[in-house]
Amino acid sequence: MKVLLLLVFLFSNAISGYSHSVFITSQYDKRCPPPELIDPCICFDHSRKCTAVCSNFTNSEDLQIIFERTPGWKLEEVLFENSVMKYIPTAIVEVPHFKTLDVRSTTLLQLFQNPPITSSRISLNLYNVTLLRGLDWHSLSNLNIRGLTTENIRIKYFGKEFKNGIPKSVSSLKFHNSKTVSITDNAFSEFDRLITLGIEDGYIKKISRDMFPRPWRVHIWRMSNQRISVLPDDIFSDLPNLAFLDFSKNLLKTISEKMFLQERKVFFSLFGNPFVCNCNLKWIPTYERTKESAILGKCDAPETFKGERFSYLQDSDFWYCE
Predict the structure, then answer these.
(1) pTM value?
(2) Which of 123, 193, 227, 284 is placed for a possible disulfide with 147 were both Cys, Cβ 3.0 to 4.6 Å?
(3) Which letter does DSSP use for residue 59 in this model?
(4) CB-based contacts of 214: which residues, under 8 Å, 6+ apart?
């Protein structure tokens, strides 16, 4: 019995040692440079993607030196975090295989040293980034950009500079907690390849259909937590690919049946608006019963309907309407 236990113990250790050695050798794939060349950055090779994580930098030049001494680095994704620098060196995003730049909890004088020029389509994500000179749209004008996401970066308005700076080939724009006040100069009207748009958590009071492309191939459109109180009747027209729309947490008290003439199935999220469920909304029960689309919202008034979901309303609730 002791011999058997000893054999089991030795076999288990052998398997453990083998697994450990596989883990150690797999940490540094051929696509990652030797760790001493990129310290204090760290390289990971996972899911067929080569990623660098660079933290706690205070000097843009130090960062640039790291990438200059590793010219063969087939880098696809970089995460910068918890740093205070003048800018992100332009050369980093100009390498042929580059796909994603994430910047988190970092303070920069400006985003890039110079406007980068890229051939690969890239995604740019800025989370809790302080740009002391503001977000310069021109610095993005030569990027072959797939998508741009910002969080907690104030963008007072979208206007001519935005329209002229962002490449029209972009397919995704997401601005979370942007505190935006207005959209001017038909700022999004030329972005006909845009399939995802989100402008959330701001102070926008007015939107019109001519601010956006017509027709527009958008799939997902979010304008939640703004100050919009009125929607034009044509606001959802010429959106043949729309699948999900979120105008929740605005100031809408009523909506017109003319807005909802789509033939395809669409989910309209309108929760958190102070809807008054009177005769102006008597069409909703029939719509919910006969259409594939769903209008997700609740009544805020009158008191007898307060908290009632649109999907629970009945034709008989509006018996007093002509």
Answers:
(1) 0.87
(2) 123
(3) -
(4) 189, 237, 238
pLDDT 10s per residue in the chain (322 long)?
433 433 333 344 443 443 333 333 334 456 788 899 999 999 988 767 889 999 999 999 998 899 888 887 888 899 999 999 999 988 888 876 788 999 999 999 999 989 988 878 899 999 999 999 999 999 999 989 999 999 999 999 999 999 999 999 999 999 999 999 999 989 999 999 999 999 999 999 999 999 999 999 999 999 999 999 999 999 999 999 999 999 999 999 999 999 998 778 999 999 999 999 999 999 999 999 999 899 999 999 999 999 999 999 999 999 999 7
Look up residue 298 and give its DSSP letter. B
Q: Decide: 237 and 213 in contact? Cβ < 8 Å.
A: no
What is the token pair recorded at 315? 């034709």
Q: Which residues, in sequence order, are CB contacts of 298 under 8 Å at separation 6+?
A: 271, 275, 307, 308, 309, 310
- Provide the residue ranges of all domains of the chain, joining segments of one domain with +: 30-153, 189-321
Per CATH, which fold does 189-321 belong to? Answer: 3.80.10
User: For residues 296-319, b (16+ Cβ closer than 10 Å) or e, as one string?
Assistant: ebbbbeeeebeebebeebeeebbe
User: Where do runs of H (alpha helix) occur along 204-297?
Assistant: 284-290
Identity of the residue numbered 276: V
Phi/psi of residue 101, each to 5°?
-120, 115
